[in-house]
Amino acid sequence: MEKIRIAQFGLGPIGIETLKLAAEKPWAEVVGGVDIDPAKAGRTLAEITGIPSLSGARVYSKWQDLFSAAKPQVVFHTSVSKLAAACEQITPIAQDGVSVVSSCEELLYPQLRDAALAAELNQVCQRHGARVLGTGVNPGFVMDVLPVCLTGVCREVKELHIQRVVNATTRRGPLQRKIGSGLPPAEFERLFQEGKAGHAGLKDSAALIAHCLGWKLTGLFETCKAVVADCDIHTPHVVVKKGQTCGLHQRAEGLINGQVVLTMDLKMYLGAPDPHDACQIDGQPSLHLRLEGGIAGDVATVASLVNAVPRVLKAPPGLLLMTDIAVPSIS
Amino acid sequence: MEKIRIAQFGLGPIGIETLKLAAEKPWAEVVGGVDIDPAKAGRTLAEITGIPSLSGARVYSKWQDLFSAAKPQVVFHTSVSKLAAACEQITPIAQDGVSVVSSCEELLYPQLRDAALAAELNQVCQRHGARVLGTGVNPGFVMDVLPVCLTGVCREVKELHIQRVVNATTRRGPLQRKIGSGLPPAEFERLFQEGKAGHAGLKDSAALIAHCLGWKLTGLFETCKAVVADCDIHTPHVVVKKGQTCGLHQRAEGLINGQVVLTMDLKMYLGAPDPHDACQIDGQPSLHLRLEGGIAGDVATVASLVNAVPRVLKAPPGLLLMTDIAVPSIS
Prior knowledge:
Oligomer: homodimer
Order of helices and strands of chain A: EHEHEHEHEHEHEHHHEEEEEEEHE
Strand content of chain A: 25-35%
Number of strands of chain A: 15
Strand order of the largest sheet of chain A: 3-2-1-4-5-6-15
Radius of gyration of chain A: 20 Å
Structural class of chain A: alpha/beta
CATH superfamily of the largest domain in chain A: NAD(P)-binding Rossmann-like Domain
CATH class of the largest domain in chain A: Alpha Beta
Number of helices of chain A: 10
Number of domains of chain A: 2
Distance between the termini of chain A: 15 Å
Helix content of chain A: 25-40%
């Protein structure tokens, strides 16, 4: 079996973990990386990941240099959350006929944010034989793909309600900061409104669900409130005083003709009790799914990216949705 | 949008319900049926289903007559559980370039029962541009596709354990009889050994999971015990005396090198308490899924068959697995 040549675009914590998992797969060969950080460019992936067998794989500051030197077939893209920025980075890769599996939240269902840009990227992919997919655990699985999958045994879906509760104490520092830990509540909520804090991808998950269910939403709204600490909290990454933000309660609602048919409720804060994922379908049959303890974020995100590769390469070229390609499975 | 021309092979209770649901779909046009029962052949589907708009769709006693008259593009096949019988019925349909969505339990992962026969049917499909898929709720979703889907966010799966508890009191007569209701326990267990009673498809589900996870099972064993009534039970369909069979406890185990890594545990009996579906993955991350109340069998089976059609037609020709085609969703 010919191994799939893999490279990494963006060598932050998630990028490095993705590469490490890919390096364990018998079907993958890690051939290089791209990062604009001058402290990383020029080094080998063995130095950056600690995996000795990656001593021949180098980090470049530009895609074109990586492509010329290492000719990857698939690139993991884990550098940005916004669609426009992602498309700018991904388009040159797709133009070289190389496929991309991205953690960019707005790539989950890019038609929501910018349908013209999505159509353009799709054309680039089809013209050059590349596939591009946005995935992860959330968005990418637990609040979208998994509920959609459940509807496959329904003859009718009237309403769909999804909850996720994450105890952020168990998560890494960047996530604890992204949910506002330590900020005055008003400041966190202002940053959320500016798109600079909070969970990215909730509306994108809702839009993917609506697309799969054939629902024409007449409204899609999102709110986010700070969860306020009722005592001082210390984690290895942040210090939160009583009265400061210790996380968020974010919610998206989808409406059809004034009626709420889709709710996505996300609580992610330090010390959140009873972490879990849940989904209720009101339909025929009605279904009640619960994942006790929930799906741990970072491990699952990295696994989602790596596991998607074989399925992505089997799909026809284009800008793909998770629900277009084969059923998820470990690869 | 051109409607998909649908026909039905086998007009038993599940076949009729499948047709009725298909008739509600804006993308489907029901054009006819096949049944060997002389009481059905020659009649219209309007008479058989009670749906007046199907007055132009007729029932034929032979596939060739239906095909000549109605030219369906997709056939629902709901007449048999055994692979050999299914292939005999499906092969002529595929040879006419018509795709088949079947409830035949052994078609879920036909490579388990007869790899040569599966390869032959696959060749027929590819030669004539037809797709064939085996699906349903169980097998086809709750004890196989759904657990596989969960592994998509795992970097490691050490063990997988699946449970299903069905309160058979709420189910239709044929199912109550299939699980042995009213039989002496020894007679039910003998019929199970002969393949004439019990739940069909448990080993097939296990084999599909192993295939998707890349597990080479060194053993796959199935047991089935009668559940014995501890009081008299009357349902609208059966009468069970104390001491007689009121259902089953069926179990499949998959082993790798002497270690049980996969268990499928199915309890289906009259009055079974706490009906649910559950799945535990022991891995990274470990996951604990539970569907409170479980997934109701018949409604969900019919929905699975109908919902699969658009996804099947988008796949390349061949003998397909549920895990080869796109993520399930309501259609």
